[in-house]
Amino acid sequence: MPPSAMLFPTQKRDPELYPHRHGLYFSFFNALNWQVAIGTPAVLFMQHLGADSFQVGLVFAWTFLLTPVQVLATAFLPHLGFKRLTLVGWSARGWCLVVPIGLAILAPRQPLPWMIYAMVTSSFLYSLSRAVGGAALTTWLYQLIPASISGRYWATDQILSAVAIVGSLLLYSLLFFIFPPYLVFFVQYSIAILGAWIANRQLRILPDVERPKLLSLEKIITETPRLITEPSLFRTYLWLSVPLFVTITPLAPFAAYYLKATAGLLAASIMLLTMLTYFGVIAANWLMRAHMDQHGAIPFFRLSYAFFGLIAAGWMLFLQSGGRWLIMLPFLFFLQGFASACWTSANLTYLCKIIPEQDRALPVSIH
């Protein structure tokens, strides 16, 4: 059996997932894009250009700072529909990576400040287009995927994304050992643009679904505060999620920044540690793929919070050692991936079950 048949669903091996395979293909190739654009490779490129911790943090913060744009963009759904709105966002963001490719071609020995500002601006535009597309994508897939297989679908989605990232990080690590950094940065951003193009083609194959008829800007402005503040299961779940986003999201970029700038690890070593994170993602989703639909999301939420507690304790010990206990890092990075995967797949499965099927777009964008 070819490796692709083991990764992707086939008519014979998984007939329930097979009709939705193009959504899974999209996740695989999309991971080649976003992991470079807002992942560890972006941190290393920013550092190579001389960016400080605030500028690196800003590149990652745009995704969350632009959440209001994602919420407001749902107003376009009655006019464009789910498929067209997703394609508008996802088609535009690949072009934002032309900027880092240009900087890699210039390969400056002494980077100039405008280069860092160009990267910050391109990441802003990337996150802006992502916010527009993100207003429709998850809700669109919720309506395409039957509830009976949603847990298995989202776990498979995460596995394929992680496999794509592990393979690319292995390649980038090897290239950093062999070639000059700017050549490697050029290769990784070129692969990211190729991934965006193929992912976009997979989205075009997916069928559209019925547009929401009543979702005006006025309704969004009045309904958003109500969803956030009025007692409901959605509000409880939303505010339970906020502390996790605030405390865990900065961990990956600032860990990479600290290990490069303070602990002195090589870029290739940081890539390999990041790869262990995605081995953790694969392990967790392999477990959830077999059990999520039977046991529900709650046990995996609990497991993720327990592991995040261990991760926090582990990083505190590592920092107390002055960064000398490097032997802890593989464990921490793997556990980070495992815990994050438990939460992400559980979230995607649980969220669609606590909001009305006919009125999902706005709550999903808020969350």
Give your account of this protein's structure.
With 367 residues, this protein is an all-alpha fold. The protein has helices spanning 3-7, 21-37, 40-48, 53-65, 67-73, 77-93, 98-106, 113-144, 150-178, 181-205, 217-229, 233-248, 251-261, 267-295, 298-320, 329-354, 361-366. Helix 9 (150-178) runs antiparallel to helix 14 (267-295) and helix 9 (150-178) runs antiparallel to helix 16. It is globular.
How would you summarize this macromolecular structure in one to three sentences?
By secondary structure, the chain is an all-alpha fold.
Characteristic terms for this protein:
single chain, 367 residues, mainly alpha, disordered N terminus
Q: What is the number of strand segments?
A: 0
Helix content: over 70%
Return the structural class.
mainly alpha
Q: How far apart lie the N and C ends?
A: 40 Å
CA radius of gyration is: 20 Å
SSE succession:
HHHHHHHHHHHHHHHHH
The number of distinct helices, counting runs of at least 4 residues, comes to 17
What percent of residues are in strands? Answer: under 5%
Q: What is the approximate shape? A: globular
Averaging pLDDT over every residue, what do you get? 85
The major sheet is characterized as:
none
